[in-house]
Amino acid sequence: MWSGSCWSQEPGFGGHPVFGSALAADPPDSSVVAYGGWDATAQDAYVALYETWEFRGGVWSQLLGSGPKLAGPTAIDDPKLGGVLVIGKGAQTEETWLLSKSGWRQLHPEHSPPARLGASLGIDPATGALIAFGGYRIPKDAMTNTWRWTGSDWQLETAATDEVNIPPSGLVVADNHSLWLLAGAPYSNKVVLWRWAGGTWAFVGASTPGPRLLGFGAAFDGREILVFGGLDESSGTGAALNTAEWAWSGKSWRRIH
C-alpha cells in the first residue's frame, strides 16, 4: 500500500499463484477487485485462470459465482455503469463484462475491439470518456489503436488509430485533469508521455529527465502519477530491478527514492 511517501506490505493474496491479473479499485465498496491472469505455476506459463477476488479491510476474499473466461484481462471502475468494467480475449473475440453488486454480467456491444491481451484502460477526467489503448495479439503482434466506450458500444477513434510513434506496451493513467499514456521508448526504454486531447494522443515533453524503465507500473495517488517497479535500464550496462519511485506532476519528473 502506497502512503504517499513509502510502501507498506499488506496481507498476502490467498488464492492460486497468478501473474497478470486485472486490478481495479471499486470505490463504492472501498475495495480492490482482482480478476483472472496466468497460472504462475504452469509449465508452459500461459494457462489462464478465471477467479475473482476482492481486497477489502486488509483481507483477500474470493467472490464466487459464474464469471467470464478472459485471457489478458484489463479492468477499471466505471461510475456510469455502477461497477467494474473488464475487457479481455474470449474464446473468439474481445469481450466486455461488468462486475457489480448483483454479480457478473456480459455486455453485448454492437462493435468491439479486435481480440487482444493486456490492453490499457483509463477514464478521461475532462470528458468522462472511457478509453482503451493498445495490447497484443498472440504471440507478440503489437496493437496501437484506441477505442472509446460510449456506455453501450465501442467506437474506434480513427484520429488515434495505429499511432506508429507510440509503443504498444503503454499504460493509461488519469490524474485530476488529464488522461495520460506512459510508455518506454524503443531501444532506450526512457519513459515518454502523451496526453489524450481532441480524440488523439498528443506527445508531451518533460522539463526534467525521467526514468528509463522496462515493465513498470503506474498509478495516480491523488496528487501525482506514481511510476514504480520494473527493470531499471539507466546504467546502460544491463537491467536491474528498479527500487526507486518516480512522480510525474504533469510537467516534470521527480525521483522520490
Write the layout of secondary structure elements.
Elements (H helix, E strand, L loop, with lengths): L17 E2 L2 E5 L4 E5 L2 E2 L12 E5 L2 E5 L7 E8 L4 E7 L4 E7 L2 E5 L12 E4 L6 E8 L3 E9 L4 E3 L14 E4 L4 E6 L6 E7 L2 E5 L8 E2 L2 E4 L4 E4 L2 E2 L7 E2 L3 E4 L4 E3 L2
What does this structure look like?
By secondary structure, the protein is an all-beta fold. The chain has a domain at 16-103. It contains no helices and 25 strands. It has a 4-stranded antiparallel β-sheet with strand order 2-3-5-6, with no helix packed on it. A 4-stranded antiparallel β-sheet has the order 7-8-9-10, with no helix packed on it. A 4-stranded antiparallel β-sheet has the order 11-12-13-14, with no helix packed on it. It is globular and about 50 Å long. The mean pLDDT is 90.
